[in-house]
Design goal:
The chain is α+β, with helices and mostly antiparallel strands. The chain is about 30% helix and about 20% strand.
């Protein structure tokens, strides 16, 4: 979302109509293409060693919303012939955004399922919700009934689940709001840490041209090969046909942050990009897919991380290409992986340096308020279906090192943070990573019509294998 240049101001006079803001390009395109069966949600889960006090957390979160007023919005009503969707800014939430669900078996699993299957409505402000779920106890050899009998169960921690309607907001913006809430709750500074820097390359210009070996973007890219999706247990009709249920599923994993060889021009993000490409190439070979070029969508976020961060959908999307021949090897040596990392680094550096609209110039033209939104919606959906063969192979969203301490005082500091991005077909698979407390937190999210949980576990193992392989690429000196 292209954020406002000034903060939203709410009138004190209750009779004054609320401020309205036209949907930016990203929001409008997303709004046109909503599907009830596959909600466009972003999920964030923050693991804490303790449990925050409900009243204090609600007060801190409400105050954080007021300090970032651009998040307090709902979709304004309007006639079918209106030429723009509009956000209506509100002085306070329409509904309580913070809930503490009662303890239940498999609480984390159920909370993740809700985050993927139920989007906060756009018609109510704010289009996010925060659930505080008790962390599940670690497996133990024996049981400890004494604590339960005494009524003094040990606080094993909690998980904050943020579910975001992606039509309105993205993950980094909502994490900024949560960091403000943490600072208000715990009373400790949550100023963002400085981002890590790439080793400078003396041969690189400030605005580098595309590398000469960049593959063409005109060929339809490879798709993630279909695995063995599980049939729906909830619909007799679908189950009788063996069709999988729609929607997304997810697997999270904690891995070591990959070691970057000393003096390397590539970044950890480049290592993640290569591991993602090799993971899918390996998977596709196993499933008999013909070699095709890859394109991996990579969000780039240039916003500041401090309290002035614009709230909304603020990332721009670039596509990192790979030629089919680049990923066709069966045995990857340290030298071949190092060469692939070099080429990937050149491409990502050039793409990040380019100045372009968030979704390209075509999207800005498509959302020009010339026709009513209903007509533009039909046109956008039709063009999206027509362009499906050219949609990128997958999306890799690397949040990087979480820049905030997320210290909630008596509830402790976050020791794990996971994100996940929507995985609607034709991509059907997204990879999201973040690092906290020296660990890499990986989320694989996929369409249930494409993959099963067993497929996801295999992809995770492939990702871990190839990510580890990128560490052993030291050059001889």
């Amino acid at each position: 979302m292209t954020a406002l240049d000034h903060p939203a101001r709410h009138a004190e006079d209750p009779e004054r109509p609320p401020t309205r803001v036209p949907f930016p390009v990203v929001d409008e395109v997303s709004r046109h293409c909503l599907q009830e069966e596959e909600p466009e949600t972003v999920h964030i889960e923050v693991h804490l060693p303790g449990t925050p006090d409900p009243d204090r957390l609600r007060a801190a979160f409400h105050e954080a919303l007021r300090r970032h007023p651009r998040i307090l919005m709902r979709e304004a009503r309007g006639p079918w012939y209106r030429r723009r969707y509009e956000w209506e800014l509100t002085p306070a939430p329409d509904t309580e955004p913070v809930t503490f669900p009662p303890p239940e078996p498999d609480a984390l699993k159920r909370a993740r399922e809700r985050a993927l299957s139920s989007a906060p409505p756009l018609a109510a402000s704010p289009p996010i919700r925060l659930e505080v779920v008790a962390a599940e106890p670690p497996p133990a050899a024996g049981s400890a009934p004494e604590a339960a009998e005494s009524g003094r169960a040990e606080d094993r921690g909690s998980v904050l689940f943020l579910t975001i309607n992606h039509t309105a907001l993205d993950g980094p913006a909502c994490l900024r709001v949560l960091a403000t809430a943490a600072e208000l709750y715990g009373g400790k500074d949550n100023s963002p840490a400085a981002p890590p820097s790439r080793t400078p390359d003396t041969n690189t210009q400030e605005q580098p041209p595309p590398p000469p070996d960049t593959p063409s973007g005109w060929s339809p890219p490879a798709r993630v090969a279909k695995g063995s999706p599980e049939p729906s247990p909830s619909s007799q009709l679908r189950s009788s046909r063996g069709d999988p249920i729609p929607g997304n599923s997810m697997l999270v994993a904690e891995l070591p942050v990959p070691r970057r060889p000393k003096g390397s021009p590539f970044t950890v993000n480049d290592q993640l990009m290569v591991a993602t490409a090799l993971m899918i190439a390996h998977w596709n070979r196993e499933h008999g897919a013909a070699p095709r070029p890859f394109r991996i969508t990579m969000p780039v976020d240039d916003r500041p991380r401090d309290a002035t961060m614009p709230i909304g959908n603020g990332t721009r999307l670039v596509e990192v290409p790979f030629a089919a021949a680049e990923l066709s090897a069966h045995d990857w040596t340290p030298e071949s992986i190092r060469d692939l990392l070099r080429r990937t680094s050149d491409r990502t550096r050039a793409l990040k340096a380019l100045s372009r609209p968030q979704l390209g110039h075509g999207a800005a033209l498509l959302t020009a308020p010339v026709l009513p939104v209903t007509f533009r919606a039909a046109l956008t959906r039709g063009l999206r279906r027509a362009a499906a063969p050219w949609t990128s192979t997958t999306l890799l969203s690397n949040i990087g090192r979480v820049p905030y301490a997320l210290d909630f005082g008596d509830a402790g500091r976050a020791h794990a943070v996971w994100f996940s991005a929507p995985a609607r077909l034709p991509r059907g698979l997204t990879v999201t990573t973040a690092s906290t407390a020296g660990r890499l937190h990986l989320a694989l999210r996929w369409s249930k019509t494409l993959l099963s949980h067993g497929d996801g576990a295999h992809l995770r193992d492939l990702f871990e294998h190839y990510l580890h392989a990128t560490e052993h690429t030291e050059e001889g000196r």
